[in-house]
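User: Fold this one for me? It's Probable alcohol dehydrogenase AdhA.
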Amino acid sequence: MRAWSVRRPGPARGWPMVLERRPVPTPAADELLVRVRACGVCRTDLHVAEGDLPVHRPGVVPGHEAVGEVVALGSAVTGFAPGDRVGIAWLRGTCGECRYCLTGRENLCPYSVYTGWDDDGGYAEFTTVPAEFAYHLPEGYPDEKLAPLLCAGIIGYRALRRTELPRGGRLGIYGFGASAHLTAQVALATGALVHVFTRSPRARELALELGAASAGPPTGRPPEPLDAAILFAPAGELVPPALAALDWGGVLVVAGIHLTDIARLNYQRHLYGERTVRSVTANTREDGQEFLRLAARHPLQVHTTAYDLGAADHALADLAGDRVTGAAVLVAG
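Assistant: Here's what I get for Probable alcohol dehydrogenase AdhA.
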């Protein structure tokens, strides 16, 4: 099979991935073998390829937003059958025994492992996934549109939940890529007012098309104080303006796995008034199941740019250069 691997972590413009031929993997007893039909290109993949995230497995195959067809089952697998359409997401395994796993917080498990970082992911024609961490997928979406839901959608959903946004509240969204454009739709469906801050003129247009009340530059001031904000852009310099935009009692959620250094904060301007900063550390399977049920009930407009699997390096470079509106998706040829 064809598969991309990260051989030389470094800037995307230096082409850190190589396309190579590998044997089709054999599923373990608890795994599914999946023929990949589509795989989203996530900013986390970019962090793995560029070395922002430390190497967990040399030569790993990135990709954790994979949609595919089950072609073989491990001997201990139940609940799936050949031909099923399944989703493969970021969280790939946990210990199931630590205090986090036993209290519904498996995303904090110190022994957790991740698709496309600890084990090979979906930038390939075939991949494997533990059956307990595979998702049954909603009908009504083509493969290309489903793929971004498996990380961009799920993580955005968790980030939105962590804002504790009141019904009809005022939400700021900083950065407007794959995750943000889905999260905005979920927030709007609950009656929220959404204000978007992004440097991309095309992304601002998309935000307004989807129903945002306003869209402006990333350091701009919202037209009204915000009850909550989500920072999707991996830019620590946006933390101070996002905090300053919050009303008293507001919550800022930082949704990325990687963030550049946060600029100096002024207590009175940025934190006083019981403003709160929270992070998001992966997601639980329950988050994923809840979000996919929501996506089945409330069809989402998933804006994608398709790339052939053989052009994964160009997709990453375009993502790094902010040349992708919505979500980039690799499609099997």
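One thing worth pointing out: The mean pLDDT is 96.
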